[in-house]
Each structure stands twice: as C-alpha cells, then as structure tokens.
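User: Please predict the structure of the protein below. I'd like the answer in structure-token form so I can feed it into my own downstream comparison script.

Assistant: Understood. Taking the following sequence of 441 residues as input:
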Amino acid sequence: MSCKIIIYCFISLILLSCSSDDASPSNKGQLTFAKTLGGTKNDSAQSVVATSDGGYAILGYTQSNDNDITDKQDESFDYWVLKFDANDQLQWQKTYGGSLDDRGNDIIQTSDGGYAILGYSSSTDGDTSGNAGLQDYWLVKLNLDGNISWEKSFGYQGADSGIAMIETNDQGFLVTGILDVTASGGEGNSSRTANRHAGGDYWALKLDNSGNLEWSRYFGGNFTDTPYGTVQTNDNGFIIVGSSDSEDTDISSNIGTYDFWAIKISATGDMIWEKSFGGSQIDEARAIVKTNEGNYIIAGDTRSNDNNVSQNKGAADLWLIKISTEGSLIWEKTIGGSNFDVARAIKNSQNNGFLLSGSSRSSDMDVSENNGQNDAWVLKTDNNGNLVWETSIGGANIDFAYDVAELTDGSVIAVGDTASNDGDITENKGFTDLLLIKIEG
C-alpha cells in the first residue's frame, strides 16, 4: 500500500513539474516601477534606446510647458528627449521644435555616443530650418549632452512623416516613413517613375553621417502603405516592414485588407523582393529584428484566422512571424486573449529571445490580467516565439506601451503614455502623461 502511495506522489510531482514549465499567464514579469512624467497637457513617449553607459534615452513629444517640462514656453507639440542613468535618475531632458506641431517617433544612439531623433515637423521657426508642406520628416542629430549638432527636413507639399531609422554600416542613416505621393506630384524618387502610385507610400532616404541625402525611393501602390521598421541586411541592403492595403504597382500578392508587407531593397535602394503576409482581415506589421542565425522576426497584430494565420484567439492578437533572408515564411505565432492584443515594438534580448511591447484588453489565455480598457503590455518570448513571461500595466483608462529596451543589467524598460490615475498608475498630471515602466529582468 505504501509503495502505491509513493508511486502516486512521484507521478503527481512529475506532472506538476511539467506543467510549471509551460508559458502561461502565471509567468508574470516582475514590475519594478511605473512612473508618469509630463505636464497638464498631452505628453507621450514613443521610443526608448538602451545607452552605452547602462542607462537609457527616451524620445516622445510634449504639449505641456509646466510640471516636468522645464524649457518650453508655448503649448504647441515639441519633440521631448529624456536621458536616464543606470540607476533610473534623470540626467537631462530637453524639448526641440518650433511654434507648430512637431512630434518625435524614433531615437537611436549613434556610434559617436550622441543621438539621432526622427519624427515630423510642421514648423518653420525655432529649432527647425524650414518646411516644404503640411509635415516634413525632421531628423535632428544630438551630441552626448542633448545639444543639437545639426538638423534636416525632408518632404514636399503633403503630410510626410518620419517613423523609423537606423544607423547604417557606413555610419550614415536610413530613415523611413510616409511620403504623400499625391501631394508630392511623384517627387521623392531618385530614379523610379511614379506610375500608379498615390496616397501614402513607404519612403526610404539614405543619408550620410552629416544628414546629406544620398538617394531616396518610395514603394507602394494606390492605397495606404505605411512602414514601421527597418533592418540592414548582411549584404548592406535593407528590409522594411509595415502594412499595406494596396494590391497594385509594387504589391504583387495582397492577401486581404491590410497585410504585413515586407520589402528587400539593395544598398542603393533598388527593390529586390516584396512579400505580403496575413489573412483576409487586417494584419499590420510594426517592427522587425534580425535573429542570431541571420533570419528575421516581424511583430505586429492580426485580426485574421486564415491563410498565413493559423490561429486567432480573439478580436486581435499579437502576431509574430519568422522569415528567411529571401522572405519565405518559416513560422508564425499568435499571442493574446479573447480581446484586442497588439504589438508595437520588438527587440532582441540577451539570451537569444525577444522582448515586445504594445497593449492588451484581454484577461485570459496568454494575458493574466486587465486593469481597464487598454493596458500597456510587455512580454518576453524565447527564440521560437513561445511566451516566457508577460505583464500588464495600467489603470482604468487607456494605457499603451510603444517601445521596449533591455538594459545591460538585464532589466527591461518600456515606454508609452497613459490617461489613468489608478491601478498601477499612481499619478496623472494632465490629459495624457509619458509612461515609464521598469520590469525586473
């Protein structure tokens, strides 16, 4: 009798041990803090980068001129950069812009130790040197202390918005975003024709390390094509990913409504291949990273449940796909619950996995809890896209995480914005505040 009891207990322990290894909502990231920064108007963080000194730098925008914003006079939107050290202490913060609408989207630390910041500007005064239309790409190069080294505007008559950039292998830049091809009258290509292009297209500009234009190309069709992420490839070309609902011109195989649309271009901007991924509903790619073995992971969200999407858990799921260097689909994974769950950023983590941030409205399946409406959502997967841990941060109102970074000590920083003043959010200073989240690694 005692042997049977021992065997039963042994089997039970094995089953419990196996179940604890499965990624599930019980594997929560440990929240260190959630802080708000801002003034009495609208403030948001859009991008964060881990810095070489173990700290981090944040880019967003601010409409405020009070409370945490100390160098701004009016209530127009300006770029807002904040630099923190490895102990989460604010070292400096500065705003950049003119008297109109200027909003930052992406920040990188450059090889000289300074920073480059990208977004759009509607201004013609202040820190800006000019504007060609409603909105222009506005690229600003900062030194280590946040002082402007140089700035450049690129655009035409319409709404042209810089979204993402990388420093290239030659210490120049590739900046990408939206070109309003209709308003530009077809201008914006170094050599290609504008036949059957209209609306917004992917617009890629290759710059030298002083911001001088080397070439520019746009890609897309007659509808809306929006790029969100870029990587440089081993052959010095580039892969650009985003979303497209076009089905003509450069898009050869639209699957349904909006698709993940990935293009490979050469070092001089010529298209090598283009691929669409998704199902019959809305699928939007938001970010891309290169894997250690040389393939690529693209993150975004899907509302589909067919074609390339093998499973849909709810209204919208976070969708990960892995593609080869030739653009072939290797695998795909959905992560989420029964409501709306999306990714807005992906970064490589130190142990060969991936960190993602976005938002979630779910409280089941892969999502452990919801504090109300959209919560900022931060998660980690292994190198096969399996969920390792996740955590939701927020209150009763809308909370969103737009970017994520891993620091040298393994801790995770996520940034976004919040309208809450309860739950994980202890203070709201205005309409929306910059949201700064730290999670134990």
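That's the full token string. The helical segments are 2-20, 181-184.
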